[in-house]
Every structure is written in C-alpha cells, then in structure tokens.
Write a structure and sequence with these properties.
about 400 residues, alpha/beta, Rossmann fold, Argininosuccinate synthetase, chain A, domain 2, 3 domains, five-stranded parallel sheet, 13 helices
C-alpha cells in the first residue's frame, strides 16, 4: 500500500518544524511542505534546507505578495474594515490566500490530507479550515494541536531538542509572531498580562516613540477609485507601495496597536500589532472619502465596514456575503480619486490636506459668510419645522393625556 501524502502549511517556525517529525512518527506518510511568501522578508531563505533536515520530501515556496496586496489588502482597506477599532486584520487576510494555494498544491501533488500548525485556542485554525472546505470539501484536515500531548511552547522546544530539530527560539522572549507585508503581530510571554506595557525592544518594524524623529514629515498619496497609486508623486507597483509606506511609517513610530481582542472561539487575547504602512493608508483613504462620499453612503458604509471586519476576522473570506459586500464597496469607490497629504510625527498621523476632482465639498455653500443664491438661511426654518414635527405631535399628545389623568398627575 502506497504511503499517504500530507501537505503541511510550513513557516519554518517552532510549531511547523516539529510537526514534520510528528507526522512522520504518527502517520505512514510522505510530508510535503508549502511556505507562502506574503512579504515576511528573508525568513524564507533557509527554509528549503531546514524543511528537508526535519524530514520533509519537498518544499514549495510560493510568492503570493502581489495577490496579497491587490486581492486582499486593498479590498479590506477600501471597505474600511477594522476589527474592534484597532486591528487592521493583517493575519486574518493572509490566511485565506495561503489556504487556497495549499488546496491547489495538495491537488497537484495528489495529497489526501492538509495539515496546519494552528492552536486549538486561536482564530487561524478556523480561517485555514473554512477556506480548505470552500475549495476541497472532502479533503482531510490534520490539526496536531488538537491531537497531540504537547501543551505549551516549552513542551515544543523540549520535543525539538530531543530530536535535534533545528529551531530559532529560546525559552526566554519566545513571543508568538506572525509577519507579512502588511503587519507584524506579537502575542504571548509578558503580553499575556494586560497590565504590562509592551517593551520597546518588542518592536521589530517600527521605532519606539522616543527614537522617532523630532520633526514631522508630510507624505502625499494619490488614489484612483479607492486604490493607492503614488507616494510623494512616485508611481509604485502594489508591493513596492506598501513597502514604501511601511518604511515611512516605521520611521515615525506610527501604526502600533495594543489590543485585548475577542477571539472567535469565545476567549479574549492580547496582541500588539505593528502596521505602519497600513495605518497611513487607512487614514489617507478615510480622508479622501470624507469629501467624495455623500452622507448616506458614508454612514451606511461604516456599518458595512464593521460586518466586513467581522467576516474577515472569522475566516469567512470565501463567502457569498463577503463577495456581495465587495460589490457594494467597489460601487462606492468610483469617485474616490484624488490626493491626500498626512503628517507623520511620533506615532501620530495627522491630516494635512485633501483634494479630488469629484469633491462634494463646496466652499461657496460651506462658508459662514454669504452663500449667495446657493443657500438661504430662511429655508432652515421650514426644514426644522417639518423635521421636528413628529416630536411636536408626540409632545402635544403627552400634554393632553396628562390633563385628562384622573389623579391630575
């Protein structure tokens, strides 16, 4: 009987490094690995050798960076989706992209199972598995954290050391991190106590505020139909644009969020997220929408943003509702074209001017001075009378009822 083939979502980190060995010990199988390049930098360079040294037969390294930006980052940003007011969904939007590619390679290689290293307490297990089910409903999914006897990161380190598996973490300062082009997340260790402020040396992308420049820097962004196209007058491809904004934002310490969030499975967790370029992009896009969207569309879009963020956070990317919300969002972006300037200074992103050929802001009407024939102050009296009519009628009814009350009250 031929050996099984299992495809492992591989990062080269502690979890997936020991999972290769665990799969070989517990299944009569060949382990094939796939690592997705979503912008985590030089972390991927040594993985071929590392995966094979751990027992894998093959490693795919898939460059998904541009697709990550155009098909996941930009739609989420255009929607204005932010989870619980702070989290720009960096890990949430990467997982469905990675899982979709996992299914494609699993089918290409003839694998009968896909394995991931997500813990049973986290959100990523849901994101991976919902995507796998969406594209390969009969594919077996193996989740070691829900099966094995390993209970902690220290147990994992001991397991690796006992089998001479090369790992890059120690028992001290072993933060759980996820990095991609959009962000870097930190969880665990001293962060598990919300009373502890994040240490300055925790930050690996952005400068601590004390080290940020003492002078502000103005950054100019240009958008076309909600999509950023230029930074400081320079046209940039999607990946290069995010990298440029990350560089500028990190220099000034912007985009670091400290959040105790509500996980999908019902527990609270604390994470620190570095998203310097993303924070700039969200702020600039919001400023441009402030002059190009009408009031009703703008307010309704805020409700859509909340639902969109929740869907993405919960792993429901490949769903009819998310696609329908995208259709709505895209329809709102037709005139979100223009130029935005923001000022970066010690963790702050301050609006510094916005313009658009489709601006709905009319200075002639907005002025406190004479608006000429465009606006008559006298018209407001009739508007207020009609707008307040339900309140007036209700008050009159209440007065009548009080007068007729037997007790006189």
């Amino acid at each position: 009987m031929a050996k099984r083939k299992i495809l492992l979502a591989y990062s080269g980190g502690l979890d997936t490094s020991i999972i290769i060995s665990w799969l070989l010990e517990n299944y009569d199988c060949e382990v094939i690995c796939m690592a997705a390049d979503v912008g985590q930098g030089d972390e991927l360079e040594p993985l071929h050798e590392k995966a094979k040294a751990s027992g894998a037969s093959k490693l795919y390294i898939e460059d998904l960076r541009e697709e990550f930006v155009t098909d996941f980052i930009y739609p989420t940003m255009k929607a204005g989706a932010v989870y619980e007011g702070k989290y720009l969904l960096g890990t949430s939007i990467a997982r469905p992209l990675i899982a979709k590619r996992l299914v494609e390679i699993a089918e290409q290689e003839g694998c009968d199972a896909i394995c991931h290293g997500c813990t049973g307490k986290g959100n990523d297990q849901v994101r991976f598995e919902l995507t796998i089910k969406a594209f390969a409903p009969f594919m077996e999914i193996i989740a070691p954290w829900r099966i094995w006897d390993i209970k902690s990161r220290d147990d994992e380190i001991d397991y690796a050391n006992a089998r001479n598996i090369p790992i890059s973490v120690k028992k001290k300062h072993a933060y759980s991190m996820d990095r991609n082009l959009w962000h870097l997340s930190h969880e665990g260790e001293d962060l598990e106590d919300p009373r502890n402020a994040p240490k300055d040396d925790l930050l690996l992308i952005s400068k601590p505020l004390k080290d940020a420049p003492d002078e502000a820097e103005v950054v100019e962004l240009e958008f076309e139909q909600g999509v950023p196209t230029k930074v400081n007058g320079e046209a940039l491809a999607p990946v290069a644009l995010i990298e440029k904004l990350n560089e500028l934002g990190a220099k000034h310490g912007v985009g670091t969020a400290d959040l105790v969030e509500n996980r999908l499975i019902g527990i609270k967790s604390r994470g620190v997220y570095e998203t310097p370029g993303g924070a700039i992009l969200y702020e600039a896009h919001r400023e441009l929408e402030s002059i190009t969207l009408d009031r009703q569309t703008s307010h309704y879009k805020e409700q859509v943003a909340l639902k969109y963020a929740e869907l993405v956070y919960d792993g429901n990317w490949y769903t009819p509702l998310r696609e329908a919300l995208d259709a709505f969002v895209d329809s709102t972006q037709h005139k979100v074209t223009g130029t935005v300037r923001v000022k970066l200074y010690k963790g702050n992103i301050v609006p510094a001017g916005v313009s658009s050929p489709f601006s709905l802001y009319n200075e002639a009407i907005a002025t406190f001075g004479d608006s000429g024939e465009l606006f008559s102050h006298k018209d407001s009296e009739g508007f207020i009378n009609l707008f307040g009519l339900p309140l007036k009628v209700a008050a009159m009814v209440n007065m009548t009822q009080c007068c007729c009350c037997p007790t006189g009250e």
